[in-house]
Amino acid sequence: MTAAPADYTDGIDPERALKYAIQKLKGDRAQIIEGIIEHVSPSWDHERVAKLVRRQIEDRVDELGCVEGSGNLDLPGSQNWYIPDIAVVPEELAKSGGALVPDQTLLIVEITSKSNAETDRVVKRRRYAEYGAPLYLLVDRVEHSVTLFSEPGRLGYTRVEGPHPFGTPLRLPAPFDLELDTDGL
Question: Where residue 7 falls among pLDDT bands split at 50, 70, 90?
Fold first, then answer.
């Protein structure tokens, strides 16, 4: 009589295993979008746009006692682990060293590329709202527009400003209270 093969999945949480694995990749940054691992390797033009946005918000971010960067965001209960292009988080939370969740941010900025535009426009927008990110700024380099989403809920954002063509100033509400110059994005 032969023994049945062992079931190696007993007691293993697939979400936890996937998120653990993604954090242990050496030399690569990757995110998980709806259970699919995607490497994060922005182009120089993408980074240029991120720099232009960061420069405009950095003084206000400092005044608020926050940090802007592209740290890990966990979406517990889902197979998602995001690395936003820019997230603004309170400095005290940034000191934790671990991943944060979207509702701990003040602002998330995603900058589209041809390869990820629909993910940023649809999937991430829906998930950021579901997980309570208060402000989501979409800089759409494919459509040459900016859109600000606010007032998150389980069914999505209930307030949308845009899309506005590049060159149209965009007001970031409290706690930022500043006008974003979108010319040159």
Answer: low
